Amino acid sequence: MKRSIFLLAVTILLSIVVGCNIEKEVDFAAGETSTDLSAWFGKDTYIPDIETFMKIGWTSGPGISDDGQQVFFQTGFSGVSQLYRLTKEGWPSQITFFPDGIDWYVLSHSSDMAIVGASVGGSEQSQLNLVDTRSGRTRQLTDTPKIQYGSVIWDLEDKTIFFRSNMDNLRDFKLYRMDVASGEYEKLVDAEGYHGWGDLSLDGKKLLYYRFDSNVNDELFLFELESGESTHLTPHEGDILYDNFFFSADGNAIYLTCDDNDMGFNLRAKMDLATKEITYLDADAQWNVEGVSYSPDRDIMAWILNEDGYGRMKLAEIESGLELPAPDFDGIMGSATLSKTSRMLFSFSSPQQTADIWSWNWQTKKAKKLTNSVYAGIDPTIFTAPKLIKYKSFDGMEIPAFIYLPADYDGSPIPFILDIHGGPEGQFRPYFNRHFQYLMLNGFGLLAPNVRGSDGYGKEYLALDNYRNRLKSVKDMKAGADWLIEQGYSQQGMIGVKGGSYGGYMTMAAVTEYPGFFSAACNNVGIVNFVSFLENTSAYRRHLRESEYGPLTDKPFLKSISPVHKANLITTPLMIVHGENDPRVPVDEARQIIRAIERRGGIVEPLIFPDEGHGIGKLANRLTFYRQMADFFKRHLQK
Q1: I want to staple 98 with a disulfide (CB 3.0 to 4.6 A). Which of 39, 118, 119, 522 is the partner?
Q2: Computed from CA positions of residues 230, 231, 236, 237, in that sequence, does the dihedral angle turn out positive or negative?
Q3: pLDDT, tens digit, for every residue of 408-441?
């Protein structure tokens, strides 16, 4: 390795961990300096290229040992997501070296080992790997690339693991137990459907598992290891979501979140296993509860309130309900992980700060920032935060949205891009968004609406776009563009639209339902033909998606909402992005619309990555994608 390259690598790595062990009160003055450096660097704002913005770092997936002494996290520093451990000196030691990165990891109770899920080329067919978290030594436990594994739980002695797999027929996820030393496994739950493990009781005798019927409906079961018998805990009619469940310390109850209440929000609750009666713990809550975590001894619970897209952390003693001091950060709090001590790890990001891992001690009430992700030489003080607004749709319904405006916006019309989230049961949230900041610095505004059908606003709002109501959400999107014009933020001829996955479908629906209105559109791994999508998506996903979009038995309706059948109406320049290995939205969706546009001589710019899946994960590919996307919108929207 050349000396200059080596020094650059060391410099970047050091910038991740500078200040790792400095305990301090929370200070969000990113980029603050005591010296005026304008004489050295100039007073004008320097705008790096899009590639530089995409090199801004991140850390996520915090993990902590039961004794609170070992810290783990994931970061894409190497170009793909890998697992790291902080040494006692505060140095990030890379543990995994998978060519395509890792999908997830689960620490053993001792934290000396981890089960790591890794797949190839974005296929999402995660294989099980045993990793020594000290040396990084790895042993592959499964090697069947057409089969997916996940939902891993360690037993109390760190000798066996419980996992799910669709190895029987590639459709049904059944539940298994494996002896880690030998790699031998046995089937514990043999049933049709999408199953996954949830929790193991503290006496090691019982497990919780779920059957996932749709994104808004599931069932919970109790499994007795000694007898091998399952008990159905949640027989019900209609759609009810049970989530975030775990055993109480004595094993006689479970804690969970559930939306079977008058408000339709996911709220914290407790189920008595003897009576199966559910009691809500936050009867007056007005926001969805998400990301519930618990200490190894089941005495402390942490959870996050999704308040209009922002995440607020809460902490409490489980049995008494006594609320404990929690970090009061203004942004997005990620799921926490707790130790047996008073130490908790969590991830945090905001519109103006990239994601990092923090430690919180609820006894001392102090936060410690454990990672300092790189900003690639960009001064973070130039970043701009969005404003939460609401606009009325075609039927008077109020649609929440985040509007992003350049810092020097003067009130005149500017080019705007509507950014539509995936899902459709997703929600746009004000995380740190690299390319948003780049676009604003280049004179663009952005509007990110949470159209009907979005998560985070209760189950009634979530269901408003189901099946035959599909195009109502498209009307919500168009109403957002109309609002921008009415408010003077932009004007027709300067408005584009983009989105990924379901947001890609919405992008294509925008240019077919409202031909000529949008002046540029970027579809990233989006659906264009609901019939071929449902026929060709992974077998285990088909039933789950039919409950949202409509059944394959109703092909006339599915065709009526499919943009590929209206391609003759498209006059908007298109950019189409997809991965060859996409298991969710097969790449033929992209090829169908590319062929349709090319046949009629329309403007289409395809970008198909042979080594990606449902989304663009590798750094080199992300740099290519975002550079071409930024250039595309500049050419077609800026006058």
Answers
A1: 118
A2: positive
A3: 999 999 999 999 999 888 999 999 999 999 999 9
Q: What CATH number has the domain bearing residue 489?
A: 3.40.50.1820
Any domain includes 430: yes
Secondary structure percentages of the chain, helix, strand, coil, to 5: 20, 35, 45
* pLDDT tens column, 165-215: 999 999 999 999 999 999 999 999 999 999 999 999 999 999 999 999 988
Which tokens in the block code for residue 603?
A: 């403007």
Size of the chain, expressed as the number of residues it contains: 639
Is 43 domain-assigned?
no
d(CA 447, CA 260): 32
Output Rg (C-alpha) for the chain, integer angstroms: 25
DSSP secondary structure string, 267-284? EEEEEETTT--EEES-TT
Between CA 410 and CA 504 the distance in angstroms is 31
Tell me whether the omega of the peptide bond preceding residue 551 falls within 30 degrees of 0, making it cis.
Answer: no
Structure tokens at 550: 């409509």
Q: For residue 227, what are the contacts with CB-CB under 8 A and spacing of at least 6?
A: none
Domain that holds residue 558: 380-637
Domain count of the fold of the chain: 1
Mean pLDDT of all residues in the chain?
A: 90
- pTM for the whole structure: 0.90
Q: Give one word for 572, left, alpha or beta, with left for phi > 0 and alpha for psi -120 to 50.
A: beta
Which tens digit of pLDDT belongs to each residue from 123-176? 999 999 999 999 999 999 999 999 999 999 999 999 999 999 999 999 999 999
Residue 60 one-letter amino acid: S
Rounded to the nearest 5 degrees, what angle is found at the Cα of 257, between the Cα atoms of 252 and 262? 115
What CA–CA distance (Å, rounded) separates 346 from 179? 31
Six token digits for residue 138? 């790895």
Reported as a single tens digit per residue, the pLDDT across 604-632 is 999 999 999 999 988 899 999 999 999 99
On whether residue 259 sits in a domain, the answer given is no
Determine, yes or no, domain membership for 160: no
Give 19's contacts (C-beta < 8 A, 6+ positions apart): 369, 372
